[in-house]
Structures are given as structure tokens and as C-alpha cells.
Amino acid sequence: MSIGTLFIVSAPSGAGKTSLVTALRESLEGFTVSVSHTTRTQRPGEVHGRDYFFVDHAEFERMIAADGFLEHARVFDNYYGTARTTVETALSEGQDVLLEIDWQGARQIRSLMPDSISIFILPPSRRTLEERLKARGQDDPDTIARRMRDAISEMSHYSEYDYLVVNDDFDRAVAELRSIVIASRLRTRRQFEACKDLIAGLLA
Amino acid sequence: MSIGTLFIVSAPSGAGKTSLVTALRESLEGFTVSVSHTTRTQRPGEVHGRDYFFVDHAEFERMIAADGFLEHARVFDNYYGTARTTVETALSEGQDVLLEIDWQGARQIRSLMPDSISIFILPPSRRTLEERLKARGQDDPDTIARRMRDAISEMSHYSEYDYLVVNDDFDRAVAELRSIVIASRLRTRRQFEACKDLIAGLLA
């Protein structure tokens, strides 16, 4: 049984991460995007179990106490976390698993799973980032300023990541993410399992 | 000035390495295939400076004495080696450089250049390998048996390499090599140079 790779993808709001990850998932087999738990309010159009597992504070804290999270963080008044069982089951079945988390979660995962591969996505320019943050329909200047500060704070951690992808041309960025995943599947320690019979035959 | 990556590609005779590397080079910019020096006899169709630099034993040994090789080896009665200056100049100009060498050369390069990326190419089956070794127009059974022993000896070192590519479907194998090279260009320490201005603007 082969063992999958855990990919961590982080980006500031407005970098286009979710669209990229959706396109990546559609273009590759053997790939699971992990669904996080959160205590924040479900937005219109969001689906429990697809976008997030929406739980209340008491349930989230019970899971923390039971060591049920690979990583979790409190952002403003809400918890966000990655349940341990979902990820570990998929990896042991040979699936690659992708987590969309922030730099704090990425740090926690890296220390627990040093073989994970982390990718940071940057927007193509400051101007594009500002436009995307304004286009979210919340034009209150304080909210926009806070989103911008959060984005800069998130981006200041880019150098902790293994790979850096710029979302300038969408299709190229998807192709680059694909290359990172495909290359990871060609690593010798991963291929050793997949090619066991071939290698035995060649060296006989 | 960005710094290129050194790729080491090894394979047994009959794995299709040279055709793969030619196709890879044609499909990617910024990529140099290093031409080795050798003392072996030039074969019909081979071009000095394209396939090899053909030199005599005295010249080769003079270069060894002058520390002119990144790696060199004696195979049967002939020397093969990679000249230091060619590689170092291309890398410092930001070119990726690909070396086609055997496992002994790969070991020498790895110890000198630990950031190099090594790839081993396997043929798709024992039967294909045998057919390709026979198809070289030298049907003397002893020669074929010796080539087979050499191939198995070379393949026994596959686990020392970072990546393992199986040349089963030619186009897929080329795409896999491309993915390894593209992913290497997305590594954060490499992108840091390429994206310096973007990052400065985003974090300002």
C-alpha cells in the first residue's frame, strides 16, 4: 500500500487560492482536498462537509481536548482546524491530501509531518490584491484596511514554504501546481512502492 | 543574477535516456545539456562538441591533474568526464544544466554539489531492455551478456537518486521530466530571486 503526500497551500485572501485548488483537483487523480472544521457562521451557498464542517465552540473544544486536530487556530473570534483522522486515513490509502491553511497551521503541520510539501501562492501585484479585497462586497474602509493588513501579515511568511507560485496567469499557475504534485509522485521513495514489481524484474 | 539547478540523469543503456533528454531540451527554455569529454573512439554520425568532446588519453589526464573535472570515471579502457568550467559558467548565468552520467559520476557530483537534483530512468520491462540491447547491431552473445550485466549493475543504484522515472510511455516520461524541472524552478529559494521585485511591492 503506497502512502500519499500531504500538501499545504497557503495564500493571502485575494490571491485566488480556492479557484486554483479547485482547478488542480479537477485535473489530477488520486487527490483529496481536506475539509476543515470551523466555528464561524455558515455563509449563503456554503455546504457543510464540502466547504467546512461547521461546529459550535463546545464541540470544537472537545475535539481539541481529545487531540483530534493536526492543526488548529483561533482567528478573530472563531476556531479553524484540520481533523487528524480525515487526513491520516486518506494518506494511508495512498491519496495525496491538500490542506488550505494559514501560516500558523502550516507551521504546526510541518513539525508533525516533516515530509509534507508546502506551497505559498502570491497575487501578481499589490494592485490586483487590493482590487480583489475590495471586490468582496464589503466596501467599509476599515474592513478593507484590516484585510490588507492580514494579507501582508500572511505573505510575510512566504519564505517558510518549499514552493512559491505566482497567480499571474491562472492556467500557468494551475500547471505549475500540477508539476509540483507530479514531481512529488516521482520521488524515489514514493516510486519504490509503485514500481516494486518492475524493479524486482529488472534486477533479477 | 539567478542561479541554475544542476540535474543529473542516469539510466542503463537501453532505457531511452538520450531520446528523452533530447525531447526535454526541445520542450523547455533555459536548459543546457552538458557535453562530456571522453577518450573513446568517435562513432559514425557523432559530432565533436555535440555528442562528446573527443580527446586523447594524455589530454584527459592533463585535465584530471589540473582539477578540470567535476566528475570522471574510467569505463573499460576509456575515460569519461564532465568539465568543471562548462557547468559552472552555465549555472552562474541562471541556466539549468543537465548531465547524463553514470552512478559513479552521480555520486561524485552529489558530494560536490548537494543542491543538484538526480533522476534515474528505468526501462518499462526486462524484455524491452533485452530487445533494445540486442537491437544495437552487435549480436555477439558475449557483448549482449556484458551489456546486460552492466545495465543491471547501473540499475542497482536507482535508490541513490531523488527521482525515478519509468520510460514506458515516451510522451508521459518527457512530461514527467518536465514536471521535475518546472517544480525545481518554483522552489522558494529559487523564486526568491525571480520574484524579488514582486515580493518587495506586496510587502511594502
Concise description?
The structure is a homodimer of 204-residue chains. Chain A has 204 residues and is an alpha/beta fold. The first copy, chain A, has helices spanning 17-27, 57-65, 84-92, 103-112, 126-134, 141-155, 170-185, 188-194, 196-203, and strands at residues 6-10, 31-33, 37-38, 53-54, 69-75, 78-83, 96-100, 117-122, 163-166.
Describe the structure in your own words:
- Two copies of one chain form a homodimer.
- Chain A is α/β, with parallel strands linked by helices.
- Chain A has a domain at 6-34 and 94-203: Rossmann fold.
- Chain A has nine helices and nine strands.
- Chain A has helices spanning 17-27, 57-65, 84-92, 103-112, 126-134, 141-155, 170-185, 188-194, 196-203; strands spanning 6-10, 31-33, 37-38, 53-54, 69-75, 78-83, 96-100, 117-122, 163-166.
- In chain A, the strands form two sheets. The first copy, chain A, has a five-stranded parallel sheet with strand order 2-7-1-8-9, with helices on both faces. A four-stranded mixed sheet of chain A has the order 4-3-6-5.
- In chain A, α1 crosses α7 (170-185).
- The longest helix of chain A is centred in the last third of the chain and has 16 residues, at 170-185.
- Chain A starts with 5 loop residues before the first strand and ends with a helix.
- At the A-B interface, β9, α7, α8 and α9 of A face β9, α7, α8 and α9 of B.
- Chains A, B: Belongs to the guanylate kinase family.
- Chains A, B: Residues 4-182 form the Guanylate kinase-like domain.
- Chains A, B: InterPro entries: GK/Ca_channel_bsu, Guanylate_kin-like_dom, Guanylate_kinase, Guanylate_kinase_CS, P-loop_NTPase.
- Chains A, B: This is Guanylate kinase.
- Chains A, B: It is an enzyme of class 2 (transferase).
